Amino acid sequence: MGDLTLDISSITSNEFHVERLTAYYIPILKIKPNYSKFIQKVVNGSTTLWKSTSGKKCVYLSLVLDNKQPLMLKLDVVESKEDSTDPKGEETLSSPRSTHSTTPIHSLANSARSIHYDGALAQESIYIDVRRSKVISDHLFFEAFHKMVSKHITYYSVSLNISGSNNETMFYNVNRHSYSVYVPTPGYALTKVKDGLSTIWKGGSATCTHVTVYFNGLRPVLVGLWVKNGSSQKPLYFRKKSRWSQINEDEYARKLSFYGLSRSTLEICTVDINNTNDERLCINSLSSLQAKVTRFTPLPGCVVKRVMDGKTTIWDSVCDDKCVYIWLYSRGDTQSTIYLLVHGHSGRKVLYYAKNVGGKWNSVDSYKHISILTTQSILTTSALSGVQSILDARSIHETVYAHSTFKPKIVMGSFINSKGLSIKTYECRVQESKGRIVLVHGAWGYFGSIFLRWNVEWNNKHFGYTPIEHCNSFDMSTYSHIFKDSENALEALPQCQYEGSLVEALNDLGYSVYAIDLQSMGRSESVTDTRFYVEDFNDFARDVAQYVEIVKGKGCKECHLIGFSMGGNIVLRAAMEYKKATGDVITDSVICIGGMYNIESQLDTMIKRLGIRLSHGARYLVPKMVNMFEDYKCFGKSNDSFMWYNDPFTYDRNLAVRTVFELFKAARELDLQQYPDVLPTLFIHSIGDPMCSIQGARNVSKQLEGNAKLVELEGDCHNIVASHFVSNLTPILRDWLMHK
C-alpha cells in the first residue's frame, strides 16, 4: 500500500475520488484516496500545505474554492495502522465509485466498489488557509465560511423610498398613525434609504436592518436606522429641515418629544389563532382535503406574549420570552396541533401543543405532534374526486406511520450519468420489503427538501426565525455537516428529518425507497457552474431511466416510480426513454403527484409573457443569464420558507434563461405517443394548485385513458408531499400499490 501526494492546484490523478459539491452556491471539492491508500502530503503547486507526521495520514479532504481558486482546506487525519484501520471496501446499490458509462440503459451495471471511511473515526481535523499557507483554528475556518455564506445568500442590494412605493416582497412594513417601520426580508441587503429623490443614508459595505420613520402629519420628519457592519450594529438618526441631516441620539429624543411622538414602536400583543385578520401579523394558510395549515409571523413592533384559542390560553410568556412564530395544523373540528418558536435570553425553544376532545390545549413532545399530523381521517366524496375505484373509506383516525419501530439509515451513493456527471442517490431500505419505489423531486428542491420533513428544532437552534431580528452570531455546528464524510443522509442533512416524511410513509407501507438529486440540483453535479441548469430537459429523464435500471438490477420483485411537480413530467419522459432503449416498461407503475404539465398561470403579467417569448432566442445568446422577468422571492413570510432559504442545497434564486425555456417547453410539448400503453399510471393533483394547473393533469390523463387514473384533491396546496399533507396521500398510494 503506497501513500499519496495530493496537489490541489491540479487534481488529475485517477488515484483520487473527487466529489464536486455546491453548498450555498459555494463550490467545495470533497476528495478521498482510492484503492485503500492514504494522503501523506498535500501541496499547492510547489508549496507544501501539510505533511504527515507521527504516523498520521489524511483520509479525507474538503477544499473550498473562491472564484475557482483554492481558498481553505479541512483535512480529516487518522493514525495509520495497516493491520487494523485501513478503509474498507463497501458495496452499495448506488456506489459512489461508479465509473462513467455510456452504455445503453438496459445494459448498465453498477458493480464498482466503494471505499468508505467513517468520518467519526478521525482523530483530528486540520484547517488550512491556502492563500496564506497557514494552519488556522476551526473557529477561523468556519467564520470565514460563514462570511462567504452571508455574501452568497444575498440576492440583491435594495433601496427604500420612505415617501414612495416599495416592493412588498423585499420588506416587512408596518404603518401606524405617526410612524412606519420597514425591515428587509431574507436575501435582500438594504444599502440605501431615500426620501423621493433625496438620499438620507447610503451604506457602502454596511447594511440597514431596521428603519423607523416618524411623521408630523403626513410629512416625514425623523428617521432612525439600525446599521450593521460586519458583526456590529449601531443606531443612526436623521432629521429633516430643508434637507435630511444626521443628528445624535439626544437631539433625536428631543425632537420626538417636540413633535409629541413616542420613541417606542413596540406593542405587547396577544394572538388569537381564530383571528386571521390581525393586521399586526403576516398570516397565510394552505389546505388539502380537510387538513389546513395556518402560519402567523408577528410584524415589526408586535411582541407576542400570549397565544390564545378564543378564551382558552395555549401559551403564556415567562420572563422575557416572546413568540416569534406560530404554526397551526387542523383537520376539521377533530384534530389540532401547534408549534411555537419562542425566543428569549434563555435561548430559542420549539414548543408543541395539542388540543384534546374537550378543547383543552396540552403541552406535547415533537413525536406526539407528528403523530397528529400523520393521522388520517375519513376522506369525503365531496373533497375527493376520482378515487372511489381505488380507495375504500378508512377508519376515522388511522395512524399511517410507526415512528418508534423503525430507526432508518438513508444511505447516500452516486452514479455517473451519460454526461460524466456524478448524480447523488439515496436508499432507505426496509426488511422483507414488498418492492422498491424511486422518487423524483421537483424544481428548486432536492431529495431532502421535498421528500423528508424539515427538522424544525435543528433549524431553530442554528438559524432561529430571524427575518426581523437579525442574528449576528454563528455556531460552527451550523456548517460542520457540509464537511463531514458520512454516507448517512440523516447525518449529512441534519436540517431534514425522517419522521413524518413521505419516505417514512412509504417505508411503513413496506417499500424500500430510492431517490436521486437531479443534475445541477441538491448534491449532484452540473454541466456548468450555474445551479438548476439543464441544456435539454430530457437529460433529467435519461438520468432517471438510468437510475431505475440500477435500482432494478439486483433482484427487484416490484418497482414503482413517483415524480412530484417537475418530477411528474420527468417520470413520464423517463418511461418513454426507457421504452425507446429497451422496448420494455420502466416500472410496474408510474405515479405523478402535482405534475408539471401546465404552468401558464405563472405568466400572469404581460412582461412575463414577453419574457418567455424572448427566451426562445436568449437561450442561445445568453443561456445562463438570470431571468429578469421572474417575481422576486420572499422567504420571510413563514418558517417553512425560511428553512428552505437556509438550506445549503436548495435553489432559491431566479432561474437561468435556458432553464426557463426548457421548463415551459417541457410542459407545453409533452408528447405521449410513445408512452407504454400497458404501464399503469396514477395522477394525484390539487384542484386549486397555484403552481401547476390541474388542467394539465386532466389533459395528460385523458391522453393516457385506458390505463391511467386521475385523483383530484380539494385544496389550494401545490406541495401535497409536505409532511403535514402526506397523510392524505398515504391511503391513495397504499390502495394503488396493492392493486398493481
TrEMBL record:
<dbReference type="Pfam" id="PF04385">
    <property type="entry name" value="FAINT"/>
</dbReference>
<dbReference type="InterPro" id="IPR022742">
    <property type="entry name" value="Hydrolase_4"/>
</dbReference>
<dbReference type="InterPro" id="IPR051044">
    <property type="entry name" value="MAG_DAG_Lipase"/>
</dbReference>
<feature type="compositionally biased region" description="Polar residues">
    <location>
        <begin position="92"/>
        <end position="105"/>
    </location>
</feature>
<dbReference type="InterPro" id="IPR029058">
    <property type="entry name" value="AB_hydrolase_fold"/>
</dbReference>
<feature type="compositionally biased region" description="Basic and acidic residues">
    <location>
        <begin position="79"/>
        <end position="91"/>
    </location>
</feature>
<dbReference type="Pfam" id="PF12146">
    <property type="entry name" value="Hydrolase_4"/>
</dbReference>
<dbReference type="InterPro" id="IPR007480">
    <property type="entry name" value="DUF529"/>
</dbReference>
<protein>
    <recommendedName>
        <fullName>Serine aminopeptidase S33 domain-containing protein</fullName>
    </recommendedName>
</protein>
<feature type="domain" description="Serine aminopeptidase S33">
    <location>
        <begin position="501"/>
        <end position="720"/>
    </location>
</feature>
<feature type="region of interest" description="Disordered">
    <location>
        <begin position="79"/>
        <end position="105"/>
    </location>
</feature>
